[in-house]
Fold these 4 entries.
Entry 1:
Amino acid sequence: MIDLNKGKKDFTNFLKEHGQRLTNERSVVLNRILSCAGHFDPDSLYLQIRQTGLKVSRASVYRTLTLLHKSGFISIVGKTDKGTIYECTYGIKHHDHMHCIECGKVIEFYSDELEKLQEKICKKQGFEGQSHTLEIRGYCAQCRKNMK
Amino acid sequence: MIDLNKGKKDFTNFLKEHGQRLTNERSVVLNRILSCAGHFDPDSLYLQIRQTGLKVSRASVYRTLTLLHKSGFISIVGKTDKGTIYECTYGIKHHDHMHCIECGKVIEFYSDELEKLQEKICKKQGFEGQSHTLEIRGYCAQCRKNMK
DNA sequence: TAATAATTGAGATTGAGTCTCAATAACAAT
DNA sequence: ATTGTTATTGAGACTCAATCTCAATTATTA
């Protein structure tokens, strides 16, 4: 379970470092995101917040998402015709994915060696990596067996 | 160098399989994409085509890009405030991407070490990798400089 | 050549996301 | 606490990439 208070504190610190303030509106958005892990898009988030009776404008939701993105609390998973899809990455252990083309199974994996190699590659370019997405598509062990 | 004729033939085949036709407009767009490798966005592509004196409407450019995407000739690298960024993947050697959160710049890179490590990781899982996508998000050298 | 079906283009339309700016809220200093 | 300073908010206007419309056009099939 994610520690809401720690989240709030960490976000406040990030804001302070940039001469910005933790307002009620930002707090509302942050809480909503931390408490319902998973993917979301800005407009749905806005509607959800409004449904709970809280008042945060669309503009503020968008502005807060930009801040949360820059601070690394959330990351962009992709963009669809319904808009940007974000996911909460705060307090979530990073992992990558293998995706079986045959059966659709998704295997999560983590490799420290891989992480370090990526860092090394970034450094070479003067690039400061914040997050990444790696998806390997292919055939899982089970499906490979079945093919033979 | 990319074989324009082979490209045309392959695209025609794809279209035929879907009961569609290779028109002059589609041909113009295809040629433009195959002959200038690299990243591009739909509107710039449209303007480039118009500059050469050829007449293809914006709508057709967008429609053709959708087709080329579905047929695997091009793939989406990312989205910026200037629109979707595509890249030609037909006959192009594989590479991965770094995406600057600040300015939207996309840096291509290739690391043999990385490819081999991924293979090794797959093997451990009994997974047979066919293709992959890696996007590292963060800040490019230029933007990091500007931040200071 | 005629019939059929896909395609085009100009401009209207959509919709995610941004911007404006006066009103308001948070913070720092006294 | 009060005041001054500065960041933030919200409603709605605005932007602009992308899609849709539909009559005119073009490619294919019979």
Entry 2:
Amino acid sequence: MGYQVKEVADLAGVSIRTLHHYDHIGLLKPSSFTEAGYRMYSDRDLERLQQILFFKELDFPLHQIKEILDDPKFDRKHALRMHRELLMKKKERLERIIETVDQTIQSMEGGIPMDKKKMFTSFSMKEIEEHQKKYSEEAKRRYGKERVEDVEKKTSRYSEEKWAAIMGRWKDIYERIAARMDRGPEDPEVQQTLEEYRQLITDNFYECTPEIFRGLGDLYVQDERFTRNIDRYGEGMARFLRDAMHVYCDRINR
Amino acid sequence: MGYQVKEVADLAGVSIRTLHHYDHIGLLKPSSFTEAGYRMYSDRDLERLQQILFFKELDFPLHQIKEILDDPKFDRKHALRMHRELLMKKKERLERIIETVDQTIQSMEGGIPMDKKKMFTSFSMKEIEEHQKKYSEEAKRRYGKERVEDVEKKTSRYSEEKWAAIMGRWKDIYERIAARMDRGPEDPEVQQTLEEYRQLITDNFYECTPEIFRGLGDLYVQDERFTRNIDRYGEGMARFLRDAMHVYCDRINR
DNA sequence: CCTTGACCCTGACGTTACGTCAGGGGTTAG
DNA sequence: CTAACCCCTGACGTAACGTCAGGGTCAAGG
């Protein structure tokens, strides 16, 4: 038992062509076909469609939606929470636009010209786009090359002492870098220390490729939680670290 | 004096290519060019761009935006008010989606499957699309075949007495119809009077085709300002008039 | 049994609103 | 006078479908 294309289309408020399209690109393949070749959608297919529409609402491109939904580590609940945030951003954006409309009406009634910058402030999509980038980056980072699961298994087995040793080296590395911030991100000693840092990660957690390493640097600046923690080693440390990591990765790739 | 492409792009948060595109399709042509062929945008161009972005926010296709903005009778203030409404609808839609997200999270936590219909209710774009259709239809109706300008030229030249005469007949027609509302919209006398009505419009304002006449009827119900005015001839008169006009037009087209 | 109307299918080309080069010039600060 | 940025015009590419064309399926009714 299941639903035919038209039923699904009507239920979800999309066109039949859209469903065909999603089938074609492998985003939503019906779980069964009748003998005559009719598409039959199951309840689980409907759920997936709902997910797709959620992400679409946030202007994710379809190929990215596919990646996200196909990922075995995809956590629906976590994803939904992130969605909620993004939706709220969108709502806020709309609210700002409405406000701009109101102001425009007022300025028209008063015959007063509007401030040029203010005219457009509401339209900015930057915030939303950045959020979205963060989201997909987080996903990539979370899964990296190895699965997070594996990493967690690996780490949970470490003994207390080993942990203490690792954290000690970690702290050491951070302190050494912090002490040399005034030398700039390209300072050879800083770069040398970063090599050590990457090795530490690779040895104890997961193979830290340059790409991942670079992403890690970005994360330190983009995610406040990291920024706050790192900046305790020194004002602006997170940014400096990111810059230095970029330099490091650039050099490797040549 | 004016703004270069990049300045405008940054100000409005769109790409340079977008501005080129708008120039190409005639949606937003810069009001001047430097000798070297650089686009220079004026303040008025910026205002137009703002309008464009407003409409874009409501998912109007660019060609329709062009039509609307290029129309000499385009009333910014009225347009903005309609915008506001549409934006509110969008916002409400987002709020519904957020609610659905919340419910989905809840149902996930409880392990209870969700209602299939409820799953999708929030995504429906129908309301917004209908609103949009109404909007562009109203525009078409307001301007009909001839431009309102022409109509106004035509009408403004009428002498006072002629006006009085027309309005007298108008009132007469409305009163006769109001008196026969209990007979239903198909009443021959009502239909006869409608013939007279259409002729009155054609003779004095513009060629009132059946399509326009039908649209006029719709307008009477959809636009409260008309509804209020017409209902002064009798409770429910506007609706009755629309129904009768529909019957009239249906008969003509056979 | 056969037709009719409401479904379904698969190509395949069209469309919208830009993105993204390629190739080449303009302008200004050091 | 030469970077470092700005600008231009084609022209092809892309995403997410819309819109035929041509043809099969299926349940209800005459």
Entry 3:
Amino acid sequence: MSNKVSIKDIAKIANVSIATVSNVINGTGRVSADTKNKVNKVIQELQFVPSASARSLKDKNSHLIAVVVPFVEKGILQDNPFYWELVRGVENGARNHEVQVILLGIDEHEDFSFVRGRHLDGLIVVGVYEQSPAYRKILSLGVPCVFLDSYLSDPALYQVDLDDEAGGYLGTKHLIGLGHRAIAVLTGRLEQGGVNYFRYQGYLRALRESGIPENPDLVLEIDSSIQGGYQAAQRLGHHKDGITGVFAFSDVSAMGLIRGMHDIGMRVPEDVSVVGFDDIFYTQYMIPSLTTIRQDIVSKGQAAVTMLLDQINGTATTSRRVTVPVSLIVRQSTNSFRKI
Amino acid sequence: MSNKVSIKDIAKIANVSIATVSNVINGTGRVSADTKNKVNKVIQELQFVPSASARSLKDKNSHLIAVVVPFVEKGILQDNPFYWELVRGVENGARNHEVQVILLGIDEHEDFSFVRGRHLDGLIVVGVYEQSPAYRKILSLGVPCVFLDSYLSDPALYQVDLDDEAGGYLGTKHLIGLGHRAIAVLTGRLEQGGVNYFRYQGYLRALRESGIPENPDLVLEIDSSIQGGYQAAQRLGHHKDGITGVFAFSDVSAMGLIRGMHDIGMRVPEDVSVVGFDDIFYTQYMIPSLTTIRQDIVSKGQAAVTMLLDQINGTATTSRRVTVPVSLIVRQSTNSFRKI
DNA sequence: CTGAAAGCGCTTACAG
DNA sequence: CTGAAAGCGCTTACAG
């Protein structure tokens, strides 16, 4: 019995036309107060809820957006609470605008056909690159998009990015300030123009500023995961260059790294200082707590929704590019070089 | 231009009726191979995708399900990677069945009206209780549901639960086996028939079995969060009963606890042994790594989807209640009592 | 201020 | 094997 009642039923009972019912519901047209009350009462009584499908069949918009998150394993979203926080932010931003959020984990075979099939109003896309197969497909959809952490060069695209270069700089500078000179980097895929690329640029700038020559041996391109970080510890531990500082470009990898260090008998921060990136919820509870680059992930998600809806509604007065600031949070995982 | 092409356009170009096009798309009716090919070719060329709204307007089903996750802060989903893993599992299960997943974070005011409005095929509901305001509302929707971690007594309900009692028992037994007798419990809301309730029952059973009298002072009902665990450490540290073992009913609270212990100078596991619950992705990378009760969260999510779709499609031969097993994972956070 | 009618893009009997 | 037609539940000009 639940879904049977339609605008027609309301019209019949309230003794008006369906057009009037529609007008009442949408606040469109001119309807007398009396009629309005009468109709609203019936709507109340029958607990009427308009059909979204019928609406979007007419309107062409669905009040549905999707968050697109890249895959790692076939069909499985990244094992990183970072994404959860981001998605939370999006969901939270959307609920204030009566829009629902579809969660879409993509792999390289995703064809996005359901985006058109469902008349999605827009997409929030996380972490694609210009070279990603998904990138062209998404653009060809002709649907409003906001890209998160994607660093696409096309200035026409709406993007919310982090000031990654500054993050890379700040973390490195911090280590240098503590006296470290052999500073390794744990980075995810180092693609031109990608997130990690900019963090790395910041790292290089800090080195340059302090006259420290860059050393390619110190750059470890790893899986940006907890396992990736763990494995990196082995490589760093036996490194010829006497590394005393490591900058991991994600907190999850930093966590793996610290554990890995611990297992080969290197102490953090006594032997090696470690800086992370993201400021995931657990960083301050780690032992040692993690010095890291903070970004406000939830509000980033919210910003993306706002931007997307502005774009959809044509109220896009905001600029097409928002860069979220970062800050350094100093905790216990970093220490002065050779301090005893 | 993207969304303009409809079944009508295909029909015109292919020189057939729209009914035939529809039959080709759905594999219904009888269509000659020739016609089929012709139509399919046109569909290919025009990149035609059927409109989901038009379909669900007829069919009454939308191929859309929602994952309903309880709020903590107003509109903000729980700060616990557990939910992320669960949602991942659901998303993953759904994508294999051409169903999309809407993410819905609810607070006590949620009225679920969009469930009917959108003709959602079903709901996967996480962690409600019989007393939850959401519970009655959801039932009155008359929509297929699968409840996760909800322990509802109505046998007609489809549920995927964990063997929490066994989990509580196993963890406690493990501590007792190591010689601990003053074993505290860190539990979230201890509602009759809720997740924590059963874990607690398991704890009591283990105590009873070993002739250890239960001590209400040792049961700390806390916020099941990392902060909650942290704060609990203060209380436990100065506890009069000389606690040597703690069983935290979630890994996040265990993490907070261990850090809290550390901060007041109690070593884990030397002074206190700690057991967690969930086996979140980071547990084995903690220092010390966490002894915990493992559940396969992702496959739990997948099981829920399967169950839901079986129910929707009327192929529900499976029983209405699935209980996922747990196991004890022994790591470094537990140690023999007074071992030196 | 109110209503009749067309049409959004499909599916589904029903003829032929 | 194929097509004409009705109808799902809305919204939107257009009359009146």
Entry 4:
Amino acid sequence: MHAGTVRRRHDTTAVNPRATHLSLALRHVAEASGQISRADIAARTGLNRSTASSLIDELITGGLVKETGATPRARAGRPATALALRDDGPAGLGVDVNVDYTAVCVVDLTGAVRYKHVVAVDQRGHTMTEILDRINTLSRAAHAAARADELTLCGSAIAVPGIVDRDRATVTLAPNLGWRDLAVTEVLPADVHGLLDNEANFAALSEPGLLHARASYLYVSGQIGVGAGIVLDGRLYRGTHGWSGEIGHLTVDRDGPPCPCGRRGCLERYAGQEAILRAAGVPSDPGTALGVRPTVALIADRARANDPATLAALTRAGQVLGATLAGCLNLLDLGHVVLGGIYRDLAPWIAPEVEREVATQFLGAPWARPTVEVATYGPEAPAIGAARSVIHDVIGDPLRWLNH
Amino acid sequence: MHAGTVRRRHDTTAVNPRATHLSLALRHVAEASGQISRADIAARTGLNRSTASSLIDELITGGLVKETGATPRARAGRPATALALRDDGPAGLGVDVNVDYTAVCVVDLTGAVRYKHVVAVDQRGHTMTEILDRINTLSRAAHAAARADELTLCGSAIAVPGIVDRDRATVTLAPNLGWRDLAVTEVLPADVHGLLDNEANFAALSEPGLLHARASYLYVSGQIGVGAGIVLDGRLYRGTHGWSGEIGHLTVDRDGPPCPCGRRGCLERYAGQEAILRAAGVPSDPGTALGVRPTVALIADRARANDPATLAALTRAGQVLGATLAGCLNLLDLGHVVLGGIYRDLAPWIAPEVEREVATQFLGAPWARPTVEVATYGPEAPAIGAARSVIHDVIGDPLRWLNH
DNA sequence: TTCGATTTGTTGCTGGGCACAACATACGGG
DNA sequence: CCCGTATGTTGTGCCCAGCAACAAATCGAA
């Protein structure tokens, strides 16, 4: 995880052992919350038992970890006292400014979603000031809700549909919002410094089980376009500029239909929302279509009604998507794909095709069969992932929280 | 860089500050060898001057770093004493077992190639024992040459064309050598523990300038197949199983010509050596073709003679390769490609096409124009990269060398 | 030339933090 | 009931980084 405001470009800076070990101990507690003892941490990290105890004590007095009583053990010996993350300590605020809705949520240290509020509104009909005002209002409400729930917001993160400059906390370009070079995090409450990232990237962090396990996977985030978040060893891979995961314009067929990007046969032209609509024979109606949800629901309805054209369109989209993803898996040697965004809602028809394509085209399949999973969260995924990224920064550097 | 035999799966182990800081100081010396002082290191790392001095002293007495006299400075103040890597300290042994040649080389701490020996021989005509014997003989010769040059071999690495299990130091499968589950590193001299990896991966590490700069790039290694080594932030990305970089079977055209892998229209069918040969109208002659070098030289000859069919084949191959690479760059947000293997020899005809495709298809091109570079080394690249990986392990953990 | 300013490198001191060992604690089992 | 076993705590010593003062070596200005 990115270390917040600390510009850790590479590991060229001196190391602070205490901070590193506090994070290490906390991470082990997070990965086995309620099932781990001081002695376990010592054994797993290689630290001495006394050192592990000292670290845990500091985390307990700091309000990040609690004891959950003694655990009955089968073996002989003194029973261990189990440790768990506190659910009433620091919490993260996540905001998602999408084209057709704005979402906020609060996630506590355990990763649980404690507050969630989604407002469906087409941003394209509003000015930038109105949008920012709405973010501010929703954030303050979330802030109040967190406080009422005995949580302390210790950071925030905003997901936007576009290109961001994380270091400058600025939205470089968000075409669908009409934003350019906008320091959007400034509208957040002053006491929570704001992180910023792409929706697909934050959405990739929303999966509950995967992050703790230091998993590597591709989170496919289908919206109007098709993007992906790349998680390697439990950390989001952002690329050299932060634009990683642009799979929507991978070429499926050099002689395929033209794409607004200037090329031909891009993945979006086969597996994007518009393409599926068109292939299903639904007249595209940008006037009334209020964005992702309703359109996707429409397709799903027709598929459930066994409309032949729709089913054929979904099968075709799944095949093309699966073939493209198989290529990505081959390039990166990943064995796991998560289908998010519209593909989550269309999973009954898309997922089997993706699974088949990936299973047959992944070169490592004979040794390690790749898995295809449906995302846990739908439209809330980016906001939840954003909030979770704040929590990950706390786990990555607990000292910042411990020092007030 | 991988920490050798130490199974550092993730950063779940305790940190040793002294070891980390020794590596940190050494890395800074390596990146600016001859142009850096103790005070510089202190400034760049954030360590105290006295600490930096202590670290450097330890590295000097350990034989890794030397002083190269005072540097005249423009500014006022005491002139700094420049530090540089020693070229007579530890060295790495690199071995490459290819289908049609075996190469060994020795690289010193500065990255300079101090010994190199390539034996052209078609391994397919020999038994496994013969091949292993040759590796052993060549390694002993390299060992003797290093000793005569006042170098101390402190490790070795073998590159093989196939799938390896690094943790077990075993070749899982090398079809063209007929190997399966072979612990090839055991034939190396006993005092150098052997690393193991794929040829494309090691070749990616052979580029001189790029590694020190913590660069991110894709090293395309065209041989009979097409592979790639992925370097992210100066570290080789190997994937979850170590099979990353398999771009040869990315789909270019779903309705293209069939491929032995069972799919259709794979990249190899357009930009692989065999495909270029066939498209150029050269009768494929596996009987006399002694592998990569001669065949590629043949194509290059015909291209130099302006043979229309060959030029068209190369143009087509470059276009398809470039388009595929652009997709990879978009997925990973990389801005740099290095053309190695056969593409290095065919660069005059391939590189411009790749450059054009990448420039037009890389989505970040308007903000950061991608660069296409021709590899520094040819067939020796895997062996040199292998040796260099040994050196990188020394720089990554100098304590192991300092403790004898 | 001389003296102050400036930067580099070294030395002695201090404190943080980890390992180690010994001990108290708390169970299971014969 | 006592022994073996495992957990957690306490006291001690050592490694190592930070700090400050000082010596060294140069530039620049008077």
